[in-house]
Every structure is written in structure tokens, then in C-alpha cells.
Amino acid sequence: MRIFNIGIVLLSGIFLACSSIAFAKVTGDTITLGAAVSLTGKYSTNGKHTKNGYELAKNKLNAAGGVKVGGKSYKLDIIYYDDESTPARAAQLAERLIKQDGVKFMLGPYSSGLTKAIAPVTEKYKIPMVEANGASRSLFTKGYRYMFAILTSADQYLASAVDLAAAAAEAKGKSASSLKVAMIFENDPFSQDVRLGVVEAYKNHGMKAVVDDKLPKNIDDMSASLAKVKATRPDILIVSGHSKGAATAIRQISQMRVDVPMLAMTHCDSAGYKEKFGDAAEYTLCAAQWHKSLSYSDSLFGSAADYAVTFKGVYNYDPPYQAAESSAALQVWKDAFERAQSFDTDKLRDALAVTKMQTFYGNISFDSTGKNLGKPMVLFQVLDGKYKVVSPPKWASTKLVHPRPKWSER
User: Fold this and answer.
1) Which of 28, 209, 262, 272 has its CA 20 to 30 A from that of 160?
2) Which one has a higher pLDDT value, 406 or 393?
């Protein structure tokens, strides 16, 4: 009898432990999500933007009544861990969130590389993940069923800049096929996918690449690549290296007086281009998932411009698109919970798969790979210290200035 009682106690403890894990993320009136975010390391700038976007939406949703499931209102909470900008750490933390913290609903990290590290873990445990900052095309070729990305894939980021260069040339009676392209990209999954889209675009126009360089790991110096650009005189220079790469590029392009008719980059806004670099940033074309001047809106934040005002009021800086897309990820989760009317992960996965909604960030609808087909990229140009949308034409707020004035003419 004593052994039997001990067995009952042990079994009860195991049952309670398992129960606490199974229901740990819907406790009382709180739904808790998990996120590994880069708070230190080379992605810490955008990691901060990601977390701020999550927090703003969480607080806004909670103030608006939270999430309603089964006739009950639930508040949202988020467990954060610092992935230190390293894939191995991100994967470890995803395991910790799921196995130790009992997370059943995941938010993505910052960057394609870290999303690539986490996605196999969430897939293994069949945990739905709404990710807002992993755009690498290869993420959508693995057959993942539990990953949903609300941003446009990386191969689309700067392809439209090549199209703009072609159109500008043809408007002046010059053949697009005569243009020369220079490319400088970080050797990471995101930037290399951006490169693939650029390569496909310039080949479609019959253009020629004269520089095709990879950035060094620390991204502190790209002077060797820029010397090649000066020597080959391309018609368009395209750079992608996250926030640090963008800052290094504009600083050294200015210092070395690199003249090129068109300069296009990723991560201008998150690097604080117009704030930190002033006149040096003028005329740069910047790829963006979102801009506050776009006409998207929703019932929570209002318009894109309204979101920007709200964000700046809380964090005292203009929201880069990394923050906006992170906020929209919380809205997608709320929509899925309320349509599924369940906390069952498979039912939520199925609800996410048929998402069709508009947010202040843009339209969101997923294809069978988890890619958002609802919204295009935009290009803005830094003009008079402001970001002004020049592409696509439907949302353009001003005309493209082309060519960029030479440094000696400014």
C-alpha cells in the first residue's frame, strides 16, 4: 500500500507537471507567446525595433479588450530571450521556450538566418510561428507547415530598383541592356536572396554585372569593393548588409566620393540614414516593407501614419518597417485565435493558413508555403532629409530623382 501511495503521488506530480506545460501559455486570462530576439550582437539594433513592435501591439491589443475566445477575453503576454544574434543560440532558446516554458504560440526572431535556425524547432514540435523578420526565399522551400511570414520575400527587395534604372534609361532613349550593375552583399541568407532577385532582374533587362562582391563578416569596411565601383563606373550600385552594412556603406561612399547614377540599399531606415548621415544620405533609394505614407489601415492602429505617430509617442523615434511588421504579427495572432475559437495548435495552424486581412502594415494572406502574397515592397528615396515613396507608382508620393548629383555638384 505504501509503494502504491508513493506511485500515486509520483504519477500525480508527473500529471501536474505535464498539465502545467500543456496549458502554461493559456493561464487564467492570459495568452503567453514566446520570442527569441536579438538584444545583443550585430542584429541588436533591429532586434530592438522588433521587440518594440511586439510590445506596442501587445499593449494596444490588451487596452482594446484583448483576444476573445469562447466568450472570454484574454490578455496577451510575451516571454523574451536574447538570442545574441547567433543561430545556435536562437535554436536553443526556441527549444527552451517550447519544452521548458511550455510555449505553444511563437513569434519570430529578427533576420532570416535566425528564423532559419528556429523554424526547424517549431516545426518539430508542431508549434505555429508567425514571423515578421525572416524574408529569405529559402525559408519557403522547406515544406514548413507551421511557419507564416507576414513580410514580402527577400528576392523582391531590390529587384524593382533595377526596373527603375531600366525605365529611367529608356526614358532618355538609352537601351536598358547597356547599363552596368555593381553589387555588394553580406554573405548571409537574407542578403544573398536579395542578390538573387537583383541578378534575375538585371538579366531580364540584358544588363551586365561589373562588381559582385561579398562583404567581410564584421562589415566595418567595404572600401575595397567601393574602389572597384569607382574604377568600373556602374550605372547602379546595390548594397545589402542589414543596418550595420547600410551605415558602413553610406559613410564610406561619402568619404570616398563614389559617384554612381543610382544607389539602392536595404535597411536605410533602421540604420537611421536621414537622421545620422544628413546630406550624405540624399538621393539613396531604400527598399522597405512598409512606409507611413501608404494607404493601409485597420481598426486597431488606424492608418499607417497613425501607427507612426503612436509608435513615436511611445519610443521617441520614427518606426522603421521592422517595428511595423512586428506589430502586425500580433494582429495576425489575434485574428487567428478569434477565428479558430480555440487554443489547439493544429486548429490555430489551420486558421493561420487561411488568413485574409488588412492591417496598417498591409494586406496579409498566405500561400501554401507560408509566404505573404498580399503586399508588395516599396522603394523610397531620401530627398530633402525625408523618405519619399517613388515605387510602386500606385503609392508614389514623388518622382524619382535620377541621376544622383555627383559629389562635386552638391
Assistant:
1) 272
2) 406
